[in-house]
Design a protein that fits this description.
Pfam families: DnaJ_C (PF01556). With 33 residues, the protein is mostly beta strands. Helices cover 0% and strands 24% of the residues.
C-alpha cells in the first residue's frame, strides 16, 4: 500500500436514505514513521 491510497469497500458504508441500500465506505491510508 502507498501513503494516500484510497480503498473503496462497496456497500459497507452507512444506510441509504428512505431505506435505500448502504453506500460505499472509503478508507484513506496514511503511513506513519
Amino acid at each position: 500500500m502507498k501513503d494516500g491510497q484510497r480503498i473503496r469497500l462497496r456497500k459497507l458504508g452507512g444506510p441509504g436514505k428512505n431505506g435505500g441500500t448502504p453506500g460505499d465506505l472509503y478508507v484513506t491510508v496514511q503511513i506513519a514513521d
